[in-house]
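To whoever is on call:

I kicked off a structure prediction for a single chain this morning and the downstream step that reads the tokens threw a length-mismatch warning. I double-checked the sequence; it's 232 residues and nothing unusual in it as far as I can see. Pasting both halves so you can look.
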Amino acid sequence: MPVNRLRVIAVCICLVTSSLSFAQANGGAPAAAAPQDQNTTPAPSDKTSQDKTAPAATLPNAPSSSAGGPSLTDLGFPPEATQGNPKIQALLDKRTHMLKIHQRLGLITTIPLLATLITSVNAGGRNTSTASRDLHTALGSVTADLYFTSAYFAIRAPRIPGTETRGPIRFHKAMAWIHGPGMVLTPILGAMALDQKNKGEKVHGIAMAHGPVAIVTAGAFGAALLSVSLKF
């Protein structure tokens, strides 16, 4: 009887031990942590995501980089003063064009003018040939034609209101009062001298002033050319 009880107790102990071992193996032990994938990056926190997606803050007083400088109206100039006048611009363009032609013709005039002065040496005297006088007369006519054509463009060039003549241009215009009348008198006196020569007479009377007037005219004309070439 005692032996049977001991057997029953031993069986019970074995059953209890087996049940405890089975329970511990299935659910009693803590679950192992799942291994993390090495290629998986941790998700950013909410604060970091908000910092990246939120727009950059704009300073309230920072000037815009696309804003231009102040306009003339902002500086106090009325719109009428900042807009060009088409009529004045047209006059200015026409005046510039005509004065350029005047300048070019004036430079061209110097060529026959110098040739006329050179041939005047053989055009005077009682025994000079008719061909020398004719050549001198022809060169003088060409010089006068070019001169008056150049003067036409200077006189007919439109004036700009409010402009003031100063410096070399003032001297250039002053010389015109000398070589202008001289260019009128020189051909007239030359025609008188030529008529006396053709008659076989010696140049006399007012026709004798043909040479001195021509020299003064050429000098004033040369000074006028230099005045627009030099600054003073």
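Update from on-call: the warning came from a stale cache, not from the record. Cleared it. Sanity check on the structure: Residues 28-45, 47-59 have pLDDT under 50 and may be disordered.
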